[in-house]
Amino acid sequence: MKRYLYEPIKRDLFKKMVILTGPRQIGKTYLAKDLMTEFKNPQYLNYDNLDDARIIKSHSWILNTDMLILDEVHKMVGWKMFLKGIYDTRPINQAIMVTGSARLETFRQSGESLAGRYFHFHLNPISVREVLDTIDHYEALSLLNRLGGFPEPFLSGSEQEAARWRNQYYTDLIREDILEFSRIQEIRSMRLLLELLRERIGSPLSYMSIAGDLQVAPNTVRKYIDILESLCIVFLVRPFHFNVARAILKEPKVYFYDSGFVKGDEGVKLENTCAVCLLKHIQYLQDTTGEDIALHYIKTKDGKEVDFAISKEGVIKDLIEVKLSEGTLSPTLRFFSKRLPGTLAYQLVHNLRQEQYIDRISIVQAGKWLSELSA
């Protein structure tokens, strides 16, 4: 399948260097090699391969290369200065694409500046929108709930194959990626944290409570979750507040990029799948249009809460509540819709018999609504 970022990256490759980041095994290398077909003399080099690493370090790739793909190059000492140098001295019309695991996103934020030399894209899991050509929106959402949106388990169509993939995937993540960020004696705590988070989807995180469960300090829990977020294992959705600093201090909700890894009933997995689709939609708009858009949730001091809110330029534009089968209008969604005039409110229901429009709130099929997002 042709991934959703194919055309946007193809256009930008002729303007600047493209940096592509995302979770492990999300399809970055597949997408990069697919784009090679657009060029006459492309060359793919992976820093994990000893021969390729030698070529990269010595700048000895083919002279007439019109597309140079560098995979995992962030593992090289001084990689940012290296990229700056090859971009500034590249032949006319040579496209450069840099791909790598989520660690590249972390390392990109420090050290030698590449400002003005690249466009950054986030590659996210498969969404309802991305598979509409092959299956209908209801079945797509059902499959994403069961198998997750990573290409290999999703395309297998088998829960058994997905479980086998997932078991190996998280074993490798803990053994390799997480170990690079933490000490070996912390791995046990990180494993336990992952298990705890699998059962806390959609609930505001209490760092103090988790710290008690792990028998570590709350700041250590924050550090561990920062690591998991940096590696694109989980992502955080923070409460909306007009004061950004206060929003950052308030408790976020956590979701997994892989909905298949979530522990809980079908409703919990549905909320996680919707969160991934919304994140993908928002990052796509940020990456391709530069739009000032963000994903939040809303909660009052007395506990009234709406699952998701999308803001543009700091103003709430969309309110989104997720339900598995409930067609009755959510009272909290009605509450916030009345107090935030000008917003669009949606109740997304997976198993919905009849769509309705009540008090300016649309009760719609979840799969159908998600299929109309930008990515």
Can you describe what's shown?
- It contains 15 helices and 13 strands.
- The two termini are 14 Å apart.
- Helix content is 42%, strand content 19%.
- It has helices at residues 6-12, 28-35, 50-58, 79-88, 103-107, 137-147, 151-156, 159-181, 187-198, 207-214, 218-230, 244-249, 266-289, 331-339, 366-371, and strands at 17-21, 42-46, 67-71, 95-99, 118-122, 234-239, 253-256, 293-299, 305-312, 315-323, 344-349, 356-358, 361-365.
- Helix 10 crosses helix 11 (218-230).
- The chain folds into two domains: 6-122, 3-Layer(aba) Sandwich (Rossmann fold), CATH 3.40.50; 129-371, no CATH class.
- Strand 12 (356-358) and strand 13 (361-365) form a beta hairpin.
- It is α/β, with parallel strands linked by helices and 375 residues long.
Defining key terms:
globular; five-stranded parallel sheet; 13 strands; 375 residues; eight-stranded mixed sheet; alpha/beta; Rossmann fold; 15 helices
